[in-house]
Amino acid sequence: MNLHRLFVYAACVGGLATLAAGPASAAVTVVAGNDLARACYQAALNPDSHLTAISTCTAALEGQPMSPSDRAATLVNRGILHDHNGDADAAIADYTASLKIDPVLAEAYADRGAVLANQKKYKAALADLNKGLALGTDRPQVTLCDRAYVREVLGNVRGAYLDYKKAAEVAPDYTLAVEQLRRFKVVYKPSTDT
Predict the structure, then answer these.
(1) CATH code linked to domain 25-121
(2) Average pLDDT, the chain
């Protein structure tokens, strides 16, 4: 029997710059929170939100009482807004506070991992992205692409390729994954193992 090993390499590392510019975040739905919490959620869905939206989230967190799950979700949503406004430290603080309330909130891990990747804290980013995927993030294709980016930066080209491939399988219309896959060349070589 002739076995083959899969070798993958990136044909063009320059494509990484497009990912490093800003992995995407996923907002968390507020189920029964106050009106301000729902407004914060809506603002987190819009990548063009500004500082006024952050104050809406803060007012929601400081205003009427809400369930722990809605509080955790609102913290994630405010974290997204902080990230969109270029305040990575505040975003990480909100994601971390959210996880203290709900330690299995996949989006908090996935979003914090994306911010950590932008800060070039790749090992911490990888741990968070792995956890977000394991817990079932709502947008696995985004988190897989973020993890692929981190893996490639850390030298795991094969892992990066497999993540981009999985992202394209999960969401065939997710163009980022499809575009990134074009940079890779897959070569099958006979195995020397017997």
Answers:
(1) 1.25.40.10
(2) 83
